[in-house]
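Data availability (excerpt). The following record was deposited with the supplementary files.
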Amino acid sequence: MRAYFKSILPIIVDDLIDAPYCKDCPEVASECRKMLEYNLTYGKKIYSFSAISFYTSMEDPNKLSEENIKLVNILGWCLQMFHTCFLMVDDIQDRSSTRRGLPCWYLVENVGMQAITDALWMYNGLFMIIQKYFKNHRNYMPLVELFHKKGMETAMGQSMDLIYGKGGPPHFRSYNRNTYNCLTRSKTGPVFTLPVRSALLLCGINDEALHEQVNDVMMEMGRHFQLQNDYLDCFGYKTLTGTTSTDIQQGKCTWFIVNALERASPAQRTILEENYGVLDDNAILAVRSVYDQLDLQNLALIHEDESDKQIRSQIDRLPKKLPHDLFVKLLPVTGNIRKSLQNAPGPEEIGLISKEAGAYFKSLLPTLVNDFIDAPYYKDCPEVASQCRKMLEYNLPYGKKVNSFGAIAFYTSMEDPNKLTEENIRLVNILGWCIQMLHTSYIIVDDIQDGSPTRRGLPCWYLVENVGMQAITDALWIYNGLFMIIKKYLRNHRNYISLVELFHKVSRETAMGQSVDLIYDKRGVPHFPPYNINTYNYIARCKTGPLFTLPVRSALLLCGINDEALHEQVNDVMMEMGRHFQLQNDYLDCFGYKTLTGTTSTDIQKGKCTWFIVNALERASPAQRTILEENYGVLDDNAILAVRSVYDQLDLQNLALIHEDESDKQIRSQIDRLPKKLPHDLFVKLLRILYRRSG
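Predicted structure:
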């Protein structure tokens, strides 16, 4: 279905630029073709495929002719144009930087604000396509009217979103459930209703009551989706959003601010009023602190579950002639917040640790921060101590902490139950924070080297006011400080020396991995000769593998297990998981979407040695190799498109998913061969956290 759908796009593009006003101006036609191909080609096209699926399920089988299948695919492209033109405008209004893995259209060279008229041209063009192919359909005018109605509702939704996102003092008096529901009903609901209702019309079904019933279900799905967008903006991480709690900065009316205002104490409300809608890093932290105090993150998850049940109940009440199973299939597409976080469950959701254990872990951070800044050399310099506290509290609290929780889970599973004392539980949690510190120190440096803008939903530390390159010494300070923590709490442990040496070894290997990654990051001059699977495996093994081995091996040492052969066996399994993780990072960078990554295809721009370029070079024809050599590592939008076009021709996206499946099976086989005294189920749980993270 997808291949056939894709094959229709050139027809649509030709139809749009074959209009009389383009024929006499080939330059304009060329620019219009470029604009359409740039904006329409990418994206998941969920709404388009939904319309096709609903139509083929509801239509009389005798009417599923070749011509009608072509028509519903054309309708799918009209839906894609509808969605895309609003995204183009939304990107300008929100000053977004990337969309679907490429620079937003308005940021492309020589485009600028012309993108507004491009979006309007595309919007009007979809009606030309509907007229050309559906004019003789009995529901031609209802179809046109439906698109106009949903266009008006969507435009109103975006306008409302801007009205309630002016920055500075927000419109708190209007921030209530009614306002929020009205906003989401207009902003996201119409885009969800359009595919199903247009499919009904194409089937000849024009029953007003039935359309209204379907409309209610899909509007509720749109609200469900908006809650998840709000969640990701506030609590998502860099690999998901690439943005920094922009809803808080822009003073938007979200589920979180509405619920915060309902629950806030007078003191908390004052904090919200003073900081919400303020373009300042500390303001974001202040608002999110109130959200944490009110436990809004967990309340959102509960609300999502309730919404899911409500929608399923609405689906059950739909007439039997409608394909209930397709409505249910659409529901997971709207998310489940837990899955949206990198499309994989986090350590608490998957049972790696309990919520209580996670809360206890979090409670230890203030103690460790105090340990850092209570050193003698800070007592005479309170300003430095204050800055160090700020730096630690800014960088350490956020993130999934899978590695830290992994160490805790493995220790509590392997240790003699009689030794699981309150003190030992405290020690393994402190060890978990040491792992988090090591990881964070490298992330701070990595962000500087990659020129990254955000990390874990906040500006990267080096971009915070008055920090800059001081972040490098801050990272070194955290790194050295973790050994001070290990010394303070674990000096009398029999494996203290082995533990310190393990941290040193992992740190050394990780540094080597980042150095190798930078060596193969020479923009404009990629090192194609050594780009092969051996080089790639070496980079992955150094860059991500060590941080995967550390939690399990440090837990073994804390249990008093120092068997070299056993450590080597565990090391092999975790290194393979690290490689598995790196493949998914490569996938997300190349084929991720804005809601996942925020900035995509930077690997292509930087000429990095990834799984995709290695496999492309192995499979490329001479002509394709020339394209890769001319465009890989080039800072140009067209160069990204050229490389990704070769990737598409070689079907690398599907090959990567197949390779991921094979890697998953290989790791499970390695886990099966581990000694029985090790907790196999925990290794599998870690793998589940990684599996299909790329969605």
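Summary of structural features: The chain has three domains: 1-136, 162-340, 355-691.
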